[in-house]
Amino acid sequence: MEQFLNLTLNGITSGAVYSALGLSLVIIYRATRVVNFAQPAFALISAYLAYSINQATGGYWLGFAVALLAGAVMGVLTERLLVRPVRHNELGAIIVTLGLLIVLQAVAGMVWSNEPHSFPYAFDFRGDFSPNSMFVVAAVAVTALAVLLLFRATPLGLRMRAAAFHPDAARMSGVRVGLMLTLGWGLASAVGSLAGMLAVPPFIFPNVLDGVFVYALTAAVIGGLDNPLGTIIGGFLLGVGLSYVSGYLGPELVTLAALAILVIVLAVRPNGLFGKALARSV
Amino acid sequence: MSAETEETTAAPPAHRAPQPPAPRRSLPPVVVHLAWALLAFALLVGLTMITDPFTNLRIATIGYYLIAIAGLALLTGLNGQVSLGHGAFMFIGAYTVALLVLHVPGLPFWVDLLLATAAGGIAGLLAGAAAARLHGPYLAGATLALAVGLPAITQRYPEFLGGSNGLSFSVNSQPAGLVGVVPATRWEAWVVWATALLAMVILVNMSRGRLGRSLRAVRDDEVAASLAGIHVGRTKILAFIVSSACAGLAGGLQAFLLGTAAPGSFTVALSLSLLAALVLGGLGSLWGAFWAAIAFVYFQAWAEDAADAVNLPVNVENNLPLALYGTVLILVILLFPAGIHGGLTRLRAAVRSSRQGRSGRSEGVS
Amino acid sequence: MLEIEDLTTTYGPVRAVDGVNLTVAPGAITAVLGANGAGKTTLLRTVSGLVRPRSGRIRMQGKDITRSPAELTVRGGLALVPEGGGVITELTVAENLRLGALWRGDRADRAHALREVCELFPPLEQRLSRPASTLSGGERQMLAIGRALMSRPRLLLLDEPSLGLAPMITARIMQVLRDLRASTGLTVLLVEQNARSALSIADDGVVLSLGQVVMTAPAEALLTDEALRHAYLGF
Fewest CB atoms within 10 Å of the CB: A86, B7, C88, C174? Predict the structure, then answer.
């Protein structure tokens, strides 16, 4: 029983990270219909910057803040300069973000070397449900709530949603669609960098976020790529589910289990648990 | 050589009633392609005679990547299914060969390759069936999970599959008469390219025939295709089977060349790089796969050589090839969305039209 | 109010709008008629700023808005109700309406505008918190017009507002337009395939064919002169 509890709590903690990174993917997908494969790379670079600041000043929270800001900036620049020209070419957008992923990971290796460095936790990480774990879950919960509130209850959120759902109609209502999409990318990448900061400890190296990214994408796909709430739920469910797999069946099976879950969910609902089906069948 | 998959268009002459073309006795396309393949093979043999063993290995490497990427071109380019998990099928092919060589040593080598192809194809059948209802990013996500998840089974069954170190073996595929006469690397390059050219002939003929038209119809508009009588699900699954069989064959050839099959060779990065190389080469036709394979192998090689030559700090040197690769990828997509092949096609069309001058007729575009 | 001078819009090699000249007086209701493909929709999209013209001039109240994108022409007092309505089905009715007035920034003003629109279209008031996807065709058109009105336009462009709607609802919409013109001096440019209903409220009619203006006449003339009607309107 105690193992069950431990696994559940661990699963919730890792699930929180998947939810956050998945949320960043979904925000971008909803806004521009592009899966941002470079998202983990933004998070990685942000975390490395935090690492450098931490090394230089010894302060964790300053690095944390810089990481969020760096993520936002990278998101904004990428949308404006790289993605906007290819937005209508689905495969082209995928390749551009893939290329960016490759470049940024390589740059990280060039600047900080491929060797792992020790990366601090925000809080005490010892124990079964440590203060750090609580922080992770709380941070993600607060962020998710803030994002959902932003979209549902503020004029800015309304503009952003309108720009994502129906750009022409939004334009006709005076919404600066381009600006909204750029902001969406900035917001999403800041959330992604938050996820990165939570996922990286104890060590940072250029490929540290690869696994998390796959689980985050899985969570987003399971939840439905245009549904933020669905993704958050999917992330937590996935985290808990994979934790059980790891604990009861062995850690080597976790990636296969994620694949199996993905296939099963999509077999039953090809657009994710909460996604909207594109109505076109004959 | 028309390996193109674009339709032939001919503008009717402006001032005459259209006349049927004079009947011409021509060979079936398959024969023509085989002839070209034979010629290409002869050229290749000649090439390998004059290059050193290291280059022969690279030439062989281009050969098997050509097969893998051509399969991906069929699936993603012609049929529109974005697969980020192609490396997983190469993984299956490689391990099939390795396991057969280790456990059933009596089998002739070409049987091993055939079984690797079949294993890839079967896996493709399963994957295709699972993926048939998925589209766009959902398909991409599922195939990405496949790329990550499948190699992980080596950890689950370390004794049988060799764990992280993988399986090592040695294969002697040279007929007794040639041992010592033809260096191993040259022979390997011949084997790989003979297989590759044969596979390409098959693929080209598939893509020009009814299957090719069905693939493209499904890519362009599934509903319209189904209304036209094409069985959409079956077509999509068939595309997966063919492309993963190619990947299985390629993986088997890689195992043959390297003498090992290890999970580290089949990372997510491989799958992503294959797709990226394909887009670089040109998505719309199988020629793109050719440019892609060359780019895939040589780009990294040149970058590594360049980094060596300039004597950079270790960190930079290790990561420079990838950094350059990613940068080129981005630049090519932004500036030349049709890839290398698209650029060459446009160039050829430009040259052709300038040569024709202002006549009102135009040749067929192929 | 609106002056269109030698306007040309192209899609690739196709001249969808080809040298159109058109003037709309303030407070006038002008009907733009013509068959499918005549360029009516493209004309409206160009004027509203969704599409850039190849050449020509568009002036609204003397100000040149030729190159002005849609986000800005709205702020200048122009509103477009596109074909099909352009209702955002993922949002609620209230959100769609609010969206129309967001750029004004004044909350009290927005609330006031919302009340006015609800008075004009009572069915909307009953469905404010429902997703727009649950509305019927007629209600969606009302929502689309309502959203356009939320920005308090001086010039309202409508693209086939009666398409697919029952005659009763069409009549109601036309009535609303006429009342608005009477009470606020709203200028209306109305594209319709249903020539009769459009001409019933319009002052003038403009007939487009293949992107060019082939006829401009008072609506009355187009309705009563049989020769004109047969030649240009097909009935």
Answer: B7
